[in-house]
Design brief:
This protein has a single domain, classed as Roll (Nuclear Transport Factor 2, Chain: A), CATH 3.10.450.50. About 35% of the residues lie in helices and about 25% in strands. It has 4 helices and 4 strands; from the N terminus they run ααααββββ.
């Protein structure tokens, strides 16, 4: 019985020894680093970028897995029913003329890119508008498109897509 108490005591001592902080104590006063929070402009610039990515993710998902309601009109449905777009986007895309030329006005090409990423974004607080550059990768070539956004009702939304001239 005495031996089991000794074993228990040794186990407790070893457990407590493992819990001690073996890091050396600082030799000088700790340095406190104060970082400022991002400005409102930087926050809006981030919203431009994240909304653009969310828009393209939603569009890609809709085109890949279209809902039943989209049958026979998948491209139009997916462009018209994106929660990250303004109500004016479909008309703005038609006005751009890319669809009449045979390309998808969202990806500015006849096929889908292998990947896409936002490469730059800006926000103009005077007009509550943003602009993002989106680079699409198509194998050996890249296409850079301009995505125009509006900040309305406390939400950033894609308002137009400007495809490069062929």
């Amino acid at each position: 019985m005495n031996e089991s108490r000794l074993s228990y005591l040794v186990a407790v001592v070893l457990l407590l020894a493992g819990c001690t902080n073996s890091k050396p104590e600082p030799t000088s006063s700790p340095v406190v680093s104060i970082t400022s929070s991002p400005s409102a402009s930087e926050d809006m610039q981030t919203k431009v970028s994240s909304t653009t990515t969310a828009f393209y993710d939603e569009y890609s998902n809709c085109m890949t897995n279209p809902p039943k309601e989209a049958q026979g009109q998948v491209g139009n449905y997916c462009a018209d029913h994106n929660p990250n777009a303004t109500a004016a986007l479909p008309a703005n895309l038609v006005a751009g003329g890319v669809a009449q030329a045979g390309a998808d006005p969202i990806v500015c090409a006849q096929s889908f890119p292998i990947s896409y990423s936002v490469t730059s974004s800006e926000f103009d607080s005077a007009t509550n508008t943003g602009v993002a550059s989106l680079t699409e990768k198509f194998g050996a070539s890249d296409v850079v498109i301009t995505v125009e956004l509006r900040y309305k009702s406390n939400k950033m939304l894609v308002d137009n897509i400007v495809c490069p001239k062929p």
